[in-house]
Amino acid sequence: AGDWSSDVCSSDLFPSHDTEATGIKSVKSKAHADELFKDLISKKYNEVNRAFPNLTYMQKSVIVSLYYNTGSLIAIKKSGFMKYLLAGETKKAIKHFKAWNKVRVKDKRGNEKMVVSRGLVNRREFESKLLAGTFDMKDYESLKKDAQQAYQYEK
Fold first, then answer.
1. In terms of CB atoms within 10 Å, which end of the chain has fewer, N or C?
2. pLDDT at 37
3. How distant, in Å, are the alpha carbons of 11, 35, 60 from that of 74?
4. Which residues contact 94 (CB under 8 A, 6 or more apart)?
5. pLDDT at residue 31, as a whole number
6. pLDDT for 96-111, tens place per residue?
């Protein structure tokens, strides 16, 4: 409790673990998955904290979520989102942040393309409220429901 990165980003809320990105090939149980996930998020939070020590805890936690999705802290550092966030221009930062809503998929011919993910759109909306300081528990419950539905839809 008290750690947004592990409480909100749990395997219950976001049950898919990217074995390619994490290197995790075998999960023995839900408890094991939770332990591995919390360890991964903790490591990413420490990297974000070193890179952006002056941001708020919630801002860092949002960046951890984005880092988990993208796998690249370098891309985040170079983004318009971070440029505006570090300049204190939260509204502009949120506008740029919401654009990080795409996933890479293969079409029938095997060609990769980027498509908007409903689950990421919902998550970015929630995280934008964290960045803006307008988060409440109703938002969390709504996100949890949407994330679980999107996970089933995108399988």
1. N
2. 83
3. 25, 26, 15
4. 128, 131, 132
5. 82
6. 999 999 999 999 999 9
CB 24 within 8 A of CB 83: no
**What is the token pair recorded at 85?**
């966030």
> C-alpha angle with apex 79: 74 to 84, nearest 5 degrees?
130
CB atoms within 10 A of CB 34: 15
Sequence length of the chain is: 155
Give the SS3 label for residue 104: strand
Q: Which two tokens stand for residue 25?
A: 């090939």
The DSSP secondary-structure symbol of 53 reads T
The residue type of 146 is D
Tens digits of per-residue pLDDT, 29-78?
778 888 888 888 899 999 999 999 999 988 999 999 999 888 889 999 99
Triad 81, 19, 108: Cα angle to 5°: 80
The position carrying tokens 């149980």 is 29
Given a contact cutoff of 8 angstroms between Cβ atoms, the answer to whether 36 and 93 are in contact is no
Q: Please tell me the distance from the alpha carbon of residue 94 to that of residue 128, in angstroms, as a whole number.
A: 6
Q: Is 2 helix (H, G, I), strand (E, B) or coil?
A: coil
In this model, does residue 114 exceed pLDDT 80? yes
